[in-house]
Specification:
heterodimer, A: 6-stranded mixed sheet, globular, B: mainly beta, 4-stranded antiparallel sheet
Chain lengths: 115, 114
C-alpha cells in the first residue's frame, strides 16, 4: 500500500509465489492508472496500465485490478522471480487531460523476493 | 536503440554551486519532464516541456531552471537557491498528447551536496 512517511512498505515473498501490491488512489476522476517498476538505482519502467472503464487487465505474468468503488488498484505478479525485486508504484492521470505531466505518483512498495 | 540518456549517473555539488544535469532522448518525443525522487517518496514534477523553446513549472520548480533549445535535449540546472538539492533526479519523455499518460524514463542522476 501507500507509505505515509520516509519508509516504504515492504512486501517479502518466496520465489515462485504470487505477489499482490496495492495502491490507494485519490482522484475518482482519473481515467488511466499505470504501474511502474523501479529497480535500485534505475529509472522507472512501465509495466502495465488500465483504463478506468475496465476492472481487470492482464499482461505477461502481471494482472492489474481496479476497484473504483473504494479507489483501489492492485498489481498481481504470478510466479514471482528474483528479477521482480524492485519498488513498484502506481500513477494516475486525470480524466480528459492529456500528457504525462498530469500524472500523480504514489510513494511505492518495495518487493523483495526470497530465493 | 531508442531511449533516454541521463548524465552523469552520480554528481557531487558543493554548497553554493550550480550544477547542470543532462537529458537526451532519441525517441522523437515532443514532451520532456524532470522529476525529483526522495527516499520513500513518490516522483514530484519539477519542470516539463511540450515543445522546443517552451517549458512550464511543475510542482517544485523553485531553485531549478531548464532550457529546451533542441527537441532531443532538456537539461536541468540545480541552482544554489535550491535549499535541499540532494536527491535522485529523473528525466522522462512522452508523446505530447498521450491519453494514457505513459512516460519513458532515463536511468537517473543521483545528486549529492557535499
Amino acid at each position: 500500500g501507500e507509505s505515509v512517511g520516509l519508509h516504504l512498505p515492504t512486501l517479502s515473498v518466496q520465489e515462485g509465489d504470487n505477489s499482490i501490491i496495492n495502491c490507494a488512489y485519490s482522484n475518482s476522476a482519473s481515467d488511466y492508472f499505470i504501474w511502474y517498476k523501479q529497480e535500485s538505482g534505475k529509472g522507472p519502467q512501465f509495466i502495465i496500465d488500465i483504463r478506468s472503464n475496465m476492472d481487470k487487465r492482464q499482461g505477461q505474468r502481471v494482472t492489474v485490478l481496479l476497484n473504483k468503488t473504494v479507489k483501489h488498484l492492485s498489481l498481481q505478479i504470478a510466479a514471482t522471480q528474483p528479477g521482480d525485486s524492485a519498488v513498484y508504484f502506481c500513477a494516475e492521470k486525470p480524466l480528459g487531460r492529456a500528457g504525462s505531466y498530469q500524472l500523480t505518483f504514489g510513494k511505492g512498495t518495495k518487493l523483495s523476493v526470497i530465493p | 536503440d531508442g531511449g533516454i540518456t541521463q548524465s552523469p549517473k552520480y554528481l557531487f555539488r558543493k554548497e553554493g554551486q550550480n550544477v547542470t544535469l543532462s537529458c537526451e532522448q532519441n525517441l522523437n518525443h515532443d514532451a520532456m519532464y524532470w522529476y525529483r525522487q526522495d527516499p520513500g517518496q513518490g516522483l514530484r514534477l519539477i519542470y516539463y516541456s511540450q515543445i522546443v523553446n517552451d517549458f512550464q513549472k511543475g510542482d517544485i520548480a523553485e531553485g531549478y531552471s531548464v532550457s529546451r533549445e533542441k527537441k532531443e535535449s532538456f537539461p536541468l540546472t540545480v541552482t544554489s537557491a535550491q535549499k535541499n538539492p540532494t536527491a535522485f533526479y529523473l528525466c522522462a519523455s512522452s508523446i505530447l498528447q498521450t491519453p494514457r499518460g505513459e512516460a519513458f524514463f532515463g536511468q537517473g542522476t543521483r545528486l549529492t551536496v557535499v
